[in-house]
TrEMBL record:
Residues 63-177 form the Alkyl hydroperoxide reductase subunit C/ Thiol specific antioxidant domain. GO terms for molecular function: antioxidant activity; oxidoreductase activity. The lineage of its organism: Bacteria, Pseudomonadati, Bacteroidota, Chitinophagia, Chitinophagales. It comes from Chitinophaga niastensis. It comes from the Bacteria. This is Peroxiredoxin. It holds the Pfam family AhpC-TSA.
Length: 205
């Protein structure tokens, strides 16, 4: 006798037509915005990838507050953003002279350590670069969460990295300009950043 349908009448519960999404109720990233304050953080000396105007002579580390005697541009970067990261870093290099002439400094926070960063970017850089270990600063800025990974929603990115972000931070740590791109669909404008620096300094004068 055939046993093909022997257990067909013994289903313990009906099979749902739509299975619940395992990520529907997860916590999402929430990037900090202009008008709020950038969270304080500490830079360990061992995490300095490239020391320039800000960190060239730093010993034993320093804090964000000590780096903001003048407006500071804080830019996040990852080479795992592929072409997006290459373009952003090139834009920052090309606009650094204008950023400095406008009265600000530039600090780049890399998701990769010194060895990995310098392999991809072997040429000297005019600005300071620091390793953001375990994306701790990115998490404070609301652009990184383990529960909302970039690789889960952006094709072509397979690493645990933050989303792109650039902030202008005043000596009081207030954010007066912000650029974030949660879906990697925007284009960063160095001109808009430089304009924001000049506007802020004109108001302060």
């Amino acid at each position: 006798m055939s046993t093909l349908y022997r257990y067909a009448d013994y289903l313990s519960s009906p099979i749902p037509e739509n299975f619940p999404s395992p990520v529907r109720n997860r916590e999402r990233i929430n990037p900090i915005k202009a008008g709020s304050f950038f969270p304080e953080f500490f830079i360990d000396e061992e995490h300095i990838i490239n020391g320039a105007a800000l960190l060239n002579n730093v010993k034993l580390g320093t804090s964000l507050h000590r780096l903001t005697s003048q407006p500071l541009v804080v830019a996040f970067y990852s080479y795992n953003w592929n072409g997006y990261g290459d373009i952003l870093l090139e834009q920052l290099k090309n606009s650094y002279a204008a950023i400095e002439a406008a009265g600000a400094r530039l600090l780049v926070l890399s998701s990769e350590g010194k060895k990995q960063f310098t392999v991809v970017n072997p040429d000297p850089l005019p600005f300071d670069v620091v390793y953001d270990a375990q994306n701790r600063i990115a998490k404070k800025a609301g652009i990184y969460l383990e529960s909302d990974p970039v690789w889960g929603r952006v094709s072509g990115i397979n690493e645990d990295v933050p989303v792109p972000a650039v902030y202008l931070v005043t000596p009081s740590l207030e954010i007066t300009y912000e650029f974030t791109d949660s879906w990697f669909q925007k284009e960063f404008s160095p001109e808009a950043l430089v304009g924001a620096i000049e506007k802020k300094l004109a108001i302060s004068a």
